[in-house]
Amino acid sequence: MFGEQKVCFSGVQPSGNLTIGNYLGAIKNFAEFSQHYKTFYCVVDEHAITVRQNPAELRRRTYETLALYMACGLDPEKNTLYVQSMVHEHAELAWLLNCFTMFGELSRMTQFKDKSAKHSDNINAGLFTYPVLMAADILLFQTDVVPVGIDQKQHVELCRDIANRLNQIYPDLFTVPEPIMAKSGKKIMSLAEPTKKMSKSDENTNAVVYILDDKDTIIRKFKRAVTDSEAEIRFSEDKPGVSNLMTIYSCFTGNTYDEIEREFAGKGYGDFKLAVGEATADALAPVQARFAELMADKAGLEAQMKRGAEEASYYARRTLSKIQKKLGFVQIR
Ligand code: AQP
Predict the structure, then answer these.
(1) Global confidence as pTM
(2) Which candidate among 62, 134, 140, 209 keeps its CA 20 to 30 Å from the CA of 277?
(3) Residue of the nearest CA to atom 26 in ligand 1?
(4) Which residues contact 186 (CB under 8 A, 6 or more apart)?
(5) Of ligand 1's atoms, which has the minimum distance to the CA of residue 201?
(6) 25 in ligand 1 pocket by Cβ < 6 Å?
(7) Which residue is closest in CA terms to ligand 1's atom 24?
(8) What is the pLDDT of residues 66-78, one digit of tens each?
């Protein structure tokens, strides 16, 4: 909360091509918050380097992620859209919060356990303290709500614990944020292993539908999606593949699971998969068209990066200086 205004913050890592999981679990839901909140949407490039990145690709994806924010309906006049590394207060606050975060808390984070298993040759301190940087991202803006997919809920809960801990020592320092998750779409699963989350860094590109995939590719990927040996379109825990496709179809068409079951009663998986592919491709087509326009104007994207960073810095400086003062750092004006 800044003054009377409630604040919404979220971010996406430019760590790969964005997926329909990133879209349905996060970005698609961002725009509605700008009606009632002061909104900050950040391209979190500092988080991305917790795993090795190719510098040229990281740079390209940073532009692309900002362009995708706008292509997905985020108006830069109504939302502060910026790149994390251009606002140095993120990293500075992260250091301060590190000193109030316990080793045991960070050891319990499931994303750290998963990513250190996946990148066993590079279990760096940044991977371990990733949630502290995320807490800094959020607390820097005195954030009230954080729209995220379910995989990030544990990190927002840790952020709440850190904020509460600091508030006990220094009353009213931080607003304690709430994670907000989409009713449907908070966890889109891999098409190849439907018990695993769809991830942009998955090496199996057939398991993932990217926001920028063309229509033929989208339809081909859905055709190959793993289902089960029955031929019944029914939402059920014991049918993770079909249930995941139903969730995706529901998110893109607005139809409920009951309506989808009725629509495909007596039809096979082939018809259903084609319909999911078409609904996905049709919904993404306007996003892709707008994205191409935005990417053609690199100077425009850079102007937005600059403007967004200036706006974000204004708020970030206020919080950082408040906490520095409380901690006892000398401040000379
Ligand atoms: N499969 C998903 N379903 C729903 N929401 C998802 N999100 C990610 N995957 C899914 C949400 O997207 C937002 C941005 O994610 P991120 O870039 O911060 O990184 P992540 O959560 O680690 O996502 P990825 O795609 O799995 O990235 P990599 O492969 O780089 O680790 C978040 O709100 C996230 O919840």
Answers:
(1) 0.95
(2) 62
(3) 199
(4) 25, 149, 150
(5) 29
(6) yes
(7) 199
(8) 999 999 999 999 9
